[in-house]
Every structure is written in structure tokens, then in C-alpha cells.
Amino acid sequence: MHVVSREEMRDIDRHTIAHIGLGGPVLMENAGRAVYTAIEPLITANEKVMVMIGKGNNGGDGFVIARLLLDSQACVDTWLMTPPECITGDAAYHMNVFLACGGHVHLVKQEQENFASQMNQADMIVDALLGTGIHGEPYPEYVEVINQINKSKAHVVAVDLPSGVPANGEMFTHPAVFADRTMTLACPKLAQFVQPAARYFGAVQILSIGIPQAVFRTLEIQRELRLRTEVIRSLPIRDPFSHKGSHGKGLLIAGSVQMPGAAFFSAKAALRSGIGLLKVSVPDQISAIIAGRLPETMFMPREEMNFEGVTGVAVGPGLGRATKEATLVRRVLESCGSMPCVIDADGLFHLKGLLNLLPKRSVPAVLSPHPGEMAYLLETSVSEVEQHRFSISQAFAKKYKVYLVLKGKYTLVTAPDGRQVINPTGNAAMAKGGSGDVLTGILLAFLLQHKQIMDAVCNAVYVHGAVADYLIQNGHSKLDVLATDLIDALPPVLHQLYNDTTC
Ligand SMILES: NC(=O)C1=CN([C@@H]2O[C@H](COP(=O)(O)OP(=O)(O)OC[C@H]3O[C@@H](n4cnc5c(N)ncnc54)[C@H](OP(=O)(O)O)[C@@H]3O)[C@@H](O)[C@H]2O)[C@H](O)CC1
Ligand SMILES: [K+]
């Protein structure tokens, strides 16, 4: 499923109309009908619905919704922000259809008292004030209505975008509708995945408005939301005649006296994610602790670290920040350029002075920073990274020829050619030390078992989030989940995904 910017959505729209021949009024009819079909089951008899209509095409969708509600004998009132004569184009077309069907409109400006009293009584408000076409802050009369919507007790359903939210997720401080649900039309917009915009959406439903796939193929949109079906399609299938050497011989360089747990989490997650053989390089002082808990791994003393027989490397979790550890990262970059490699946590700290080595690798490295680590690598602020996560990730991945995993509520994976995949799984339970180390292990294991690096990375991120979701649905709260719980939940989550693969 493609995720689009305001400009891309406009191009999709235009192309569908100009080159495919599906007219604007048809798309608007599809859009309004899709929203109506989704909300109709939520409305019980005698519940009062208000449809709020702005001047543009978002308002046009509102006219279709109002007409269909009217036809289904719902108790609906339709409120306009601008006089009918100011409404033009496809929106005017659907306003006229609505009026011809016996629809009646109220003008907010003319009936302010009645409007305020209806707001108090409404059970549902359909917000079709502003969609992708907003520029700047909502005009004062819109601000007033938005504030009233936000004060009301009604269930608020936003059409396409909560009104006031800029489609590309630009920073804003002005009022915007706090929706209970957002009915996204055709494609998710960037705003859904960026702060602060993302907080305004409520539950999101993505509705088809009949844009043909041919349009997406022609326009080559480079950004997608990872779907479970894609994970299932691309998970590695074990050859029945395979042996342990067929599933990767990984080397994990992790852990320190202060942070032995990080090595344990990454190693155990890699083992639970199917890696064939795993060597762990930890300082001597902690090898006994790790060995006692991970009898399935082999140990390589730090001083004797070498890459013989190794087919993939992960470096960084709990490594420590002393200069001698920087040498480890340099050695990985220089000696393992032709095998998959994951760099995370303290590995990223040391990478800062070694970035120029990344583009020289024949197999691109996988970097998995959280926004703080990304900000450190780029010498910028965390808020700058959060605000521009799509463009910053793309520029970095292209410049350094890496697969970049920018962690967050919606972890973003960017390939060296700029393709981007947004991960939908995971929850706030993962906001705890050790979660990232688990991902490093899954990444290493998946890189050694998938044919395509992008599939390996996206599937690892998806599964990592899915285990947290599984725990929340099975006896855990968002407070109590530990890194070890994430690892323990890998078997049921992978079991389910593989069950779905075969059916
Ligand atoms: N995506 C699709 O394929 C389809 C989308 N549809 C819907 O159409 C909107 C986008 O419609 P558009 O007309 O481009 O934009 P909006 O309706 O969001 O708003 C444009 C009008 O709002 C006025 N405006 C602009 N900025 C502000 C502001 N800050 N405050 C108040 N009003 C503002 C603007 O008027 P101006 O005269 O001020 O320029 C416009 O009139 C999309 O989101 C979908 O809901 C269609 O259904 C078809 C398919
Ligand atoms: K809206």
C-alpha cells in the first residue's frame, strides 16, 4: 500500500482523471460512498449526525456522504462554511446532486446559535472541512468551528485528514480537529506517521476510491506501508534438505562488562529467528555469564576476533564507547564489505568517524538508529530528525548507500535507492532498554535467510513490532514487557506467520 505526500496524491488524482478517464465526480462519489459505507454501521436509530462541509473537494466528499445518509433516513444536518455559490468544480457538482435529492444546507455564519446547540446534541460529526488542500493555518472562521468540534462530545469522523492537519506532516501549532476516526481516502498520507500530526487521526481506516493500480505503476510512488501479506509472501521457506550451514553463520560483536545483557538479547533473538550458527564475541569477563545462558552459541574471545567462516555480522549492542571498540567497527566495515552487516547502538556511535567507509561496501550495511542516534550521526537535533524523518532518511541512505532503519512509532526503512517502507506493527511497550538489541538479533538472522535485503530488513522490523503487539493482546500491559518477553514471544508470532504462509 502506497503512502503519499500531498503533491503525489494530487498527481495520482490528476493522472486518473486525465489519462485513465475516471472523472473527478466519479472519484468523489467513490470517496463519499466509501466513507458512508464505513460509518453507516456506527450510527444507531435516531442518532444525530452533523456533516461539516468546507469550500473545497473535501467538502465535496461531505455532500456525497450527506446525500447517502439522507437516503438511508439518518437524522442528518449539513453545515456549510461558505455560501453555496462559492462552491465550485466537482464539489459544486455533488452539492447540486445533494440539493436535487431534497438535501438542505445550513450556513454556519448565518445560524450561529442553532449551530452551537446542534453541536451540543450531535452524536456524530463528519468532518469534511479541509483535506489535502489546506495551506497554512485554518482561516479564523474555520478555527472557531474546529474548536467547537473538539469541545463536542460527539464521535468525530474525519474525511481523508482531520481538518487543519497538513498532509505532509509539517510542524504546526494551530488548532486542528482531534478525530476519533479518520477515513483516509485512496492512500495514507505522510501526516499519519509524523508527529505532531499523527496524534490527531484517532483510529485510521484506509478506503479505496477506485484509483486503478496502473496509475501507481506509472507514477512509481517509492513509499509503502508494509502489509502482513507482504511479510507472509516473503518469509524464507526452509529447504527440507538444508543443514545448519544453510541458514547463515553469524558473528555478533556485542556486550561489555557494563552491558552484558545487550549481547544476550541480540544473540537469543537471532537464535529464535532462525540463524543456523551464531558466534558471539564478548569481553572475556562476561563470556561465562553469557555462555551459561546461551549454550546454543559459540564464543570468540574479543582479542582473537576474526571473520573466518562467517557469512554475516552484527556489531554494536552494549559494545561500549571506548576507542578500542571503534577499531572493531572499522574492522567490520573494511573486512566484511561483501557480507550482510548490521550496525546498531554503540556501533553507530563509533560509526560517526567512519561514515566514508560505508559507500565502499559491495553489500550495503544495515544501520538501525533511534532518532537520538540519527541526530548524533547527522549533528542535528532529535526534533529535526522527527520532523523530517522521510527526507532525512532518504538523503542519508542514498548518500552512504545503506539500508537505514529509523526507529520510532512507525519505524521507517529506507533502501540505498531511496525506496521507503513504513512499519505498522509495535507499540509503546517497546520503549524500554533492550528492545533495540532484540531487533539487531532478528535483523542479523533474517539477513542471512532472505534473498532480498529489503525483505529481510522490513520483515525483521515487522516481526519485532508484532511480538510486542502479541504480548499486549496476550496478558501483558504496555508497562511490563521486557526484552526477554519480546524474545519469548517470537515463537508464537513466527508460528502464526508461517501458518498463514502455508494456507
Ligand atoms: N485524493 C483523491 O483522489 C480525491 C480526493 N478528494 C478529496 O479532495 C480533497 C482535496 O481537495 P482540495 O479541494 O484540493 O482541498 P480541500 O478541500 O482540502 O481544501 C481546499 C479548499 O480550502 C480552502 N483553504 C485552503 N487553505 C485554507 C485554510 N488554511 N483555511 C481554510 N480554508 C482553506 C481553499 O480555498 P482558498 O480560496 O482559500 O484557496 C480551497 O477551496 C481530499 O482531501 C479529498 O477529501 C476528492 O473526493 C476526489 C478524489
Ligand atoms: K477533513
Automatic annotation (TrEMBL):
Binding site for AMP: 407-411, 436
Signal peptide: none
EC number, UniProt record: 4.2.1.136, 5.1.99.6
UniProt: (6S)-NADPHX binding residues: 57-61, 131-137, 142, 160, 262, 318, 370, 437
Note on how the cofactor is bound: Binds 1 potassium ion per subunit.
Origin superkingdom: Bacteria
Catalytic activity of the protein: (6S)-NADHX + ADP = AMP + phosphate + NADH + H(+); (6R)-NADHX = (6S)-NADHX; (6S)-NADPHX + ADP = AMP + phosphate + NADPH + H(+); (6R)-NADPHX = (6S)-NADPHX
Residues given in the record as K(+) binding sites: 58, 127, 163
Isomerase is among the record's keywords: yes
Similarity comment: In the N-terminal section; belongs to the NnrE/AIBP family.
HAMAP family attached to this UniProt entry: NADHX_dehydratase, NADHX_epimerase
Main function: Catalyzes the epimerization of the S- and R-forms of NAD(P)HX, a damaged form of NAD(P)H that is a result of enzymatic or heat-dependent hydration. This is a prerequisite for the S-specific NAD(P)H-hydrate dehydratase to allow the repair of both epimers of NAD(P)HX.
Complex and partners: Homotetramer.
Annotated NCBIfam families: yjeF_cterm, yjeF_nterm
Protein name: Bifunctional NAD(P)H-hydrate repair enzyme
